Amino acid sequence: MQIKSELFMATFRFEDLKIWQDSIEIADELFEIADNLYDKKLFRFAEQLRGASMSISNNIAEGSGSFSDKDFANFLAIARKSAFECANILIILYRRKLISSEVKTNLFERLAKLCAQIANFRKSILK
After folding, report:
1. How far apart are CA 118 and CA 112, in angstroms?
2. What is residue 11's predicted lDDT score, i.e. its pLDDT?
3. The domain 15-126 belongs to what CATH superfamily?
4. How far apart are alpha carbons 6 and 69 in whole angstroms?
5. DSSP alpha helix (H) spans, the chain
6. pLDDT digits (tens, 9 = 90+) for 65-81
7. Which residues of 40-71 are buried (b: 16+ CB within 10 A; e: fewer)?
8. Which of 30, 23, 28, 29 minimizes the C-alpha distance to 64?
9. 95 vs 86: CA distance, rounded Å
10. pLDDT tens digits for 58-114?
């Protein structure tokens, strides 16, 4: 008996969340920067940036599996803090002339927008 594989393709709640989708797109760009840092043997910078960028989407995903909105809201708060960590790392990279002003500005704007979206979503689930 042949069973179609699409019957077993599960989706997770977080995949439909705009904040998760945006966080993944930002993480892709931050990973590109981290890859460049790694190539320059700046391993600590690379790993810190990778970890912080993954933490945003990871916490959104993990929180979406919570049994309560309050618990989910706590994960969203951590995701937002991780975005702030990414912004701080970008400042350091810019000051060390490891990224351009344009790259920093673009990612700052996107991280700020994501932080606002996370905060608004968090407020909406706590009502």
Report:
1. 10
2. 81
3. 23S rRNA-intervening sequence (1.20.1440.60)
4. 30
5. 18-39, 43-64, 69-95, 101-126
6. 999 999 999 999 999 99
7. eebeebbebbbebbbbbbbbbbbbbebeeeee
8. 23
9. 14
10. 999 999 999 999 999 999 999 999 999 999 999 999 999 999 999 999 999 999 999
